[in-house]
Amino acid sequence: xxxxxxxxxxxxxxxxxxxxxxxxxxxxxxxxxxxxxxxxxxxxxxxxxxxxxxxxxxxxxxxxxxxxxxxxxxxxxxxxxxxxxxxxxxxxxxxxxxxxxxxxxxxxxxxxxxxxxxxxxxxxxxxxxxxxxxxxxxxxxxxxxxxxxxxxxxxxxxxxxxxxxxxxxxxxxxxxxxxxxxxxxxxxxxxxxxxxxxxxxxxxxxxxxxxxxxxxxxxxxxxxxxxxxxxxxxxxxxxxxxxxxxxxxxxxxxxxxxxxxxxxxxxxxxxxxxxxxxxxxxxxxxxxxxxxxxxxxxxxxxxxxxxxxxxxxxxxxxxxxxxxxxxxxxxxxxxxxxxxxxxxxxxxxxxxxxxxxxxxxxxxxxxxxxxxxxxxxxxxxxxxxxxxxxxxxxxxxxxxxxxxxxxxxxxxxxxxxxxxxxxxxxxxxxxxxxxxxxxxxxxxxxxxxxxxxxxxxxx
Length: 459
Prior knowledge:
The protein is of the alpha+beta class. The chain folds into 2 domains: 39-242 and 388-458, no CATH class; 266-385, PDZ domain (Pdz3 Domain), CATH 2.30.42.10. The protein contains 12 helices and 12 strands. The strands form 3 sheets. Strands 5, 8, 9, 10, 11 and 12 form a 6-stranded antiparallel beta sheet that branches. The protein has a 4-stranded antiparallel beta sheet with strand order 1-2-3-4. A two-stranded antiparallel ribbon has the order 6-7. Helix 3 (55-76) packs across helix 8. The chain is globular. It starts with a helix and ends in a 5-residue tail after the last helix. The mean pLDDT is 85.
């Protein structure tokens, strides 16, 4: 209930600040709870960015990244015969399936809350529909999983959630640190400026550009195109304009992923070396019988054997001084021999613990025994924060991209999907009618999936 009261208070504050801004400035300075701060300087910056030559290639890549084999078919449909298009569709689907299997296969197939068949459904959607398929397939799989678990009498996690950095959302296992606000704002700026660059490049009018504020806090940027002019624009140009935003987030995610992969090993080596000097042992503070993860219960092999206030002396004959030693010497696939000393009784004993559960856990929480006299180097904390910031930058930009490619309004993928999939409908109807049918189909489908995925919030 505390969270609900806090949420209501935040909404009231945003409403009041928006109304104050509306009263003292122009009416169009507000959008519901938010304040729109318009600026000409940002418009000039976008205009300069639009002159770079890479935009056409970038947005073409985005159509493929966003819609997979269907995106490829859209790009080649005027150049090849129907039989060649079918062949290329199959070949590109196979190729994309392999690519996504390499990138996401391990994460999906080893995930204890996603079934094997569910993982392959998501990979199939990724292959045929790209990042839009990743989100759509995920919504479908989690919808099925939620209702299966509800009927089985367990409590599943919601399939969708709101990202509020620094706030723990009830029933959501993910917690986003406060500095994710900065990442989200920067990512939103890049996203909107990319849309604006393509508008300028295709000589489409931009009515206004500016910053979105929640109270006095910046949330991101906005680009307001001329709606009447956009209706007259060629679908090809509009496709690239809509593609530009989420594609820029894909590029940001890939860029920081490469950096993270390049520096993670040396950073890990350095921080591990410092940890070995700081940490002087591990002491168990909790032993759980089961681990409950989104309606899945996993038995913990340490329950009934290890105890609270046991200090871990060795694992499989190897001395344990820090977390790195624990991770190194604990064999997740086999039995492990623990030698522990209980600090309450001073009794030293040996316990054999079965292999870890499907989560790769044995069911203990251990705190490190810290050497208070050790002087921690400043760059140690900097490197740890840097590694976390890189991780959240990659994850959040990936989420922004895959969400914005969703094939429904108001997301960028809404218009893109109408253009791409309307070509497969009966040509007896004109283009507008076919596009409306696609919009309705995906609109109702995604609303249904989202409703199914938020059910756990109410049980």
